[in-house]
Amino acid sequence: MDPVTLETERLVLRAFAPGDVDVVYDACQDEDIQFYTPVPVPFRRQDAEKRVYEDWPEGWATDKDYTLGAFRKDGGAFVGSYCLTRLSLGVFELGYWAAEKQRGRGYSAEAARALCDWGWAALDVHRIEWWAMVGNTGSRAIAEKLGFTVEGTLRHRVIANDGRPHDWWVGGLLRP
Ligand SMILES: CC(C)(COP(=O)(O)OP(=O)(O)OC[C@H]1O[C@@H](n2cnc3c(N)ncnc32)[C@H](O)[C@@H]1OP(=O)(O)O)[C@@H](O)C(=O)NCCC(=O)NCCS
């Protein structure tokens, strides 16, 4: 489908555009994004270009994942990336990361909630999942704020960017 634009009280969520390569590149230098999300390390400018020019538009075009960038209404600063990824029939995964400078203001919860609300309204989805490495308390706080039930811990579920297997939390949110 064509990308949508969503608005919350403080944010605009829109598809990434070519002019966003720099903010994506800068944000993804952050060590938490590099540890807790599956971005390449080191994260090079061409990795940002690939996401902005190819992966994210293709995700929308093929209905595999719906990624939106969140930007502040007051001044336009880039806040972060928020995504729903199709896992199986009727099941999507919510993923997110925020630029370090914009954290701690409730923006990620606001953006992630808006994306989930859009998902319930626009997609054939009955369950949204959330996955995070055990210990990623920030990610879990957002999921719980949105009403996700943390359903379990999978041992040694994913090899992270440190090359070691880590335990992962999984949570779910059912269609309201
Ligand atoms: C996780 C992340 C997206 C949080 O972004 P954020 O914009 O700071 O989150 P918000 O400001 O919307 O916070 C929402 C709630 O989570 C809480 N929270 C945020 N970070 C937290 C942390 N590190 N530890 C504990 N609670 C945290 C906030 O206090 C807030 O709760 P409150 O409203 O009751 O005060 C951000 O830290 C990040 O990008 N981390 C690196 C990438 C990552 O881990 N992504 C998730 C992969 S599963």
Automatic annotation (TrEMBL):
Coiled-coil parts of chain: none
Keywords annotated in UniProt: Transferase
One GO cellular component term noted in the UniProt record for this chain: cytoplasm
InterPro entries on file: Acyl_CoA_acyltransferase, GNAT_dom, Ribosomal_N-acetyltransferase
Transferase among keywords: yes
Gene Ontology MF term list: protein N-terminal-serine acetyltransferase activity; protein-N-terminal-alanine acetyltransferase activity
Taxonomic superkingdom: Bacteria
N-acetyltransferase domain boundaries: 11-175
Record-linked Pfam families: Acetyltransf_3 (PF13302)
Protein name: N-acetyltransferase
Source organism (scientific name): Streptomyces armeniacus
